[in-house]
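Hey all, sorry for the wall of text incoming. These are the two entities for the joint prediction.
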Amino acid sequence: MKKTNKLVLCILIIALITLSSITAYAAMCSHGWEYWEVMDVDYDYEYIDSGVCYATITTYVECKICGTTGELMSYGINSHEWVREDLGHIPGTNMHRFNNTCNNCGYSFITEDFCSIPH
Amino acid sequence: MRKKIIVKKNLWILVICIIVVLVATALIVFRDDLIKQGNNYDNMIIIERIDGQESLRMPYKYLDKILRDKSFYLEEIESISVSSVKFEIGEESIGWGIDEGGLVNTEDKDAVEILGGIKYCKGITDIYAIITEKKNSSVEFYEGYYAEMLINNREDYVIIPSSMSKFINEDLAPEEKRMILHHSGGPGYLGFCTIIGEYNTKDEYDTIYISYPGMANLIQAGNIDMSEYVDTFAIKLHEGKDYTKLIEYLNTYFADADSLEKYEGKTNRFDDPYIYQFVHYSK
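and here's what came out:
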């Protein structure tokens, strides 16, 4: 991902966070932040490129005094968390096929890995 | 009598011829080593071990600190040339793969020998490390790629042995030709290294050279001890500048080779004993 693209994305994220906080605050009750309790957090990831995925984090809050509920949105860029699954030996070669899946965004792709142990 | 003189004369000519042939052969065989000895260190600062061992085996923290502080010395420093120690490729360490369809001819008789012959990977900031490490070698960059990419910390790149290139699918677009590296110690991390060139050598084709930041990321992800990470470290200087400030700074980490006795029993800014020295080769 180009540096300029990342910069634009960062500015966009900051703007979105600011905007969402203002919106959330306006929609909440008149009690202060200290009375709000985090009820749940949801993470939603989207593939950007092979290096990172884009995270949308939704935090569900509730006012402990009046019971008003609300959602706070935040955004971030995370590294992939890869999980590799060995799909087995490729016949006639010293290669193994692997399925690589990101635990966060679910993006997956297949690689052919050289195996140093002779078959 | 005359015949005896002629025989003696011929014998001398034969001996001289044999000596000339032997000297010429020796020059041809050892020319790489002879050229190597004549390294051009003009206007450079070379970091060395005080105990004289060739590989620095220096902790990564030194390099990390100097790279971060480099911006304070842009007037003096033209570039920093670094290579990591070699890391073994194997089941319990670093492994490599290529996107499905990226490898071809893997059923060839020599595939196991050539692909299996890649036993090490090494981080580099420039091709100097390849040229000095591999006998009679040259590096060819593919179209659109160049040596400066080896210090790019946004993307990772790799230079492969030329013996390996016949196994890379030529039909792929240049940016699709990439090696995917992983470390058994850090299974959640994959390093995507675009193949930007290849090296030719008369030495062994046993190493892949990774752009320096990419190599460091892979090793850090693998939770590998980096206390002996740096192999070579040189600072190329801009000509005709005042280096006093830079030398003072380097003094806080490394001993000045010209006055080693000053550092005996002392510790540097990392509170380590001075085990490295810097040598300033001026023009």
